[in-house]
Amino acid sequence: MIINTVKLINFRNHSSYSLDCQKNVTLILGSNGWGKTSILEAIYILTRGKSFRATDKDIIKRGTDFYRIELEYNNGELIIATFDGKNKTFTALDKKTRRLPTKQKYPVILFLPSDLNLVDHSPGRRRDYFDHIYSQLDASYSTSLSRYNKALKQRNELLKTESVTLDSLFSWNLLLAQYGAELHTKRKSYTAEINQRLTSTYRSIAQNQDEVELIYSSDASSSESSYLRTLEQNFPRDSILGHTSFGVHRDDYQFLFNHQSADNSASRGETRSVILALKFIEADLIYEKLGLKPIILLDDVFSELDETRRRCLIENFKNHQVIITSVESIE
């Protein structure tokens, strides 16, 4: 057990709500639209520092001008987040900050029904999915990703102006090359780590001898000089397009099932077993690298899984704190 209680005020459709989590498994029952996912969202904000689905202005309960959420860990530590309509602040260890301090962040495995369709999702959705995993494993990855995205935004804004020149882009090109090459290297490394476990973990779920592989697809480079040179070579094209056409922001991941593209060869049940395997691997990597057992947040995914995969999910996460939302009781 990691979390004791969670309290919400003016959060989504909850005027006031308190959840007692003093068990290994906490079940949140309610009909669709009641606000079950909002409770997981509040936990996510207090453990990771931001929502997984919206901006703060979208979260405030309609007709009110603030929200407040509190999370108490089992060691008595209290984390509070408040948003007054303009600014969000976190309070931890009697100190107020605009962002949740890294030391107060706790790893979370978030499992949404949409994750089960990851194989068929857009490249951007797949990038976001794996960026989330890698950011939890490595705080420096998250920092590099944030700095890359800020530099990319600035470069794209300049490319939309008529006065843009290669010289005016130089500083942003340097930053994109630095952080882009770093992200490329880490994505290759973490993808390799996942692949070392993916087939064996999948087979433990599916009970067969199929092979599964995750392919990291990128036109970028782990070399800063090569990355910079390509950005400069692409300037004429980018100035016409008005955006940056090269870089790790265009990366993708593909799944191979028995050496063929999974979106063409794997069944619905097989792709769901692949996603379950990814969740189990993520939890193992977090424990190995951080020494922490992540909190497991399951948002109405039991209704999307058959009995065999439900049992496998329960068995693999039995030694973690699990918080589940559902429209019906789960045996």
Features:
10 helices; alpha+beta; Rossmann fold; six-stranded antiparallel sheet; 331 residues; Glutathione S-transferase Yfyf (Class Pi), Chain A, domain 2; globular; four-stranded parallel sheet
Topology, element by element:
Layout: E1 3-11, E2 14-20, E3 25-29, H1 36-48, H2 56-59, E4 67-73, E5 78-83, E6 88-92, E7 95-97, E8 108-111, H3 123-137, H4 139-159, H5 170-206, E9 212-217, H6 224-233, H7 235-241, E10 252-257, E11 260-261, H8 262-265, H9 268-290, E12 295-299, H10 307-316, E13 322-326
Parallel strand pairs: 3-13, 8-12, 12-13
Antiparallel strand pairs: 1-2, 1-4, 4-5, 5-6, 6-7, 9-10, 10-11
Helix pairs in contact: 3-4, 4-5, 5-6, 5-9
| C-alpha Rg (nearest Å) | 21 Å
User: N-to-C SSE series?
Assistant: EEEHHEEEEEHHHEHHEEHHEHE
Physical arrangement of strands within the biggest beta sheet: 2-1-4-5-6-7
Percentage of β-strand residues: 15-25%
Question: How would you describe this protein?
Answer:
This protein is an alpha+beta fold. It has 2 domains: 3-106 and 297-326, P-loop containing nucleotide triphosphate hydrolases (Rossmann fold, 3-Layer(aba) Sandwich); 116-290, Glutathione S-transferase Yfyf (Class Pi), Chain A, domain 2. Helix content is 44%, strand content 21%. It is built from 10 helices and 13 strands. The chain has helices at 36-48, 56-59, 123-137, 139-159, 170-206, 224-233, 235-241, 262-265, 268-290, 307-316; strands at residues 3-11, 14-20, 25-29, 67-73, 78-83, 88-92, 95-97, 108-111, 212-217, 252-257, 260-261, 295-299, 322-326. The strands form 3 sheets. The protein has a 6-stranded antiparallel beta sheet with strand order 2-1-4-5-6-7. The protein has a 4-stranded parallel beta sheet with strand order 3-13-12-8, sandwiched between helices. Helix 4 (139-159) packs across helix 5. The longest helix has 37 residues, at 170-206. The two termini are 20 Å apart.
